[in-house]
Specification:
alpha/beta, Rossmann fold, 2 domains, seven-stranded mixed sheet, Methyltransferase, Methyltransf_25
Length: 249
């Protein structure tokens, strides 16, 4: 990970430090030109299994990539949506990079890039599928009910909200301590420096998320992503959460 982070095409340590001391929006504006050369971009090893699972559930008409960044999830939506694919993000810099790297093959769905806050989406119920990759750490737990309500409001009845979620790291493992350490550093940073940079991934727990989605008016199902392996107990290392908009809350 460190080798990829500090690769020649990626950001320097100084650039990352400046980003980390900015707001979320401005930090990603700064990182945008080199974002695709960092480990923060969702890798193809995750995108491909999600694409496979969504193809089995689709096809879909219109799709939205929530917090799209430079467009990794847009590539997934183009494979499963027939009419329109929209990316929404708060960072103008990330959207600009996404537009610049866009290539539209023949007979592809129409592509749109929209700058907006995911907590106040500027759409009506026009989408059949909403996806998101790696963005939920930027929302505090208290913001999630409102975020999920926003997603429901832009889905047509029966529309789906899909995102991968990894199983929690085993307590005491290297991954566990790495995440715990990162979370602690971010909390200290935000206690000492303003504006805050919200990036807390440990509170995004499957049991809490399922309950919050149900309260927001979704019926939730889980789909294993076997391509990403299994834990020692046989359970999948990663699942695709598929939340379907119910007719009434």
């Amino acid at each position: 990970m460190l080798r990829r982070m500090f690769a020649p095409e990626g950001p320097t340590f100084r650039e990352l430090a400046v980003q980390a001391l900015s707001s979320v929006e401005h930090g990603y504006d700064l990182l945008a030109p080199k974002f695709d050369h960092t480990p923060f971009r969702t890798p193809e090893s995750v995108l491909a299994p999600v694409s496979r699972a969504l193809r089995e559930l689709g096809p879909f008409g219109s799709g939205l990539d929530l917090c799209c960044g430079t467009g990794a999830g847009m590539d997934v939506l183009r494979q499963v949506c027939r009419e329109r694919v929209t990316g929404v993000d708060i960072s103008a810099g990330m959207l600009a990079v996404g537009r610049a790297r866009e290539t539209v093959p023949a007979r592809a769905p129409r592509m749109e890039w929209v700058r907006a806050d995911a907590r106040a989406l500027p759409f009506g119920p026009v989408f059949d599928l909403v996806v998101s990759f790696g963005a939920f750490g930027h929302f505090l737990p208290g913001e999630r009910p409102g975020l999920f309500a926003q997603v429901r409001s832009v889905l047509r009845p029966g529309g789906r909200f899909a995102f991968p979620i990894a199983a929690p790291s085993r307590p005491g493992s290297a991954a566990y301590w790495m995440l715990a350490g990162f979370d602690a550093v971010m909390r200290v940073r935000n206690a000492l420096w303003h504006p805050p940079f919200v990036m807390y991934y440990r509170p995004f727990r499957l049991s809490d998320v399922r309950a919050e989605l149900a309260r927001a008016g979704f019926a939730v199902r889980l789909h294993a992503l076997p391509e990403l392996g299994r834990r020692p107990d046989g359970s999948p290392r990663c699942r695709l959460v598929v939340a379907t908009r119910a007719e009434a809350v």
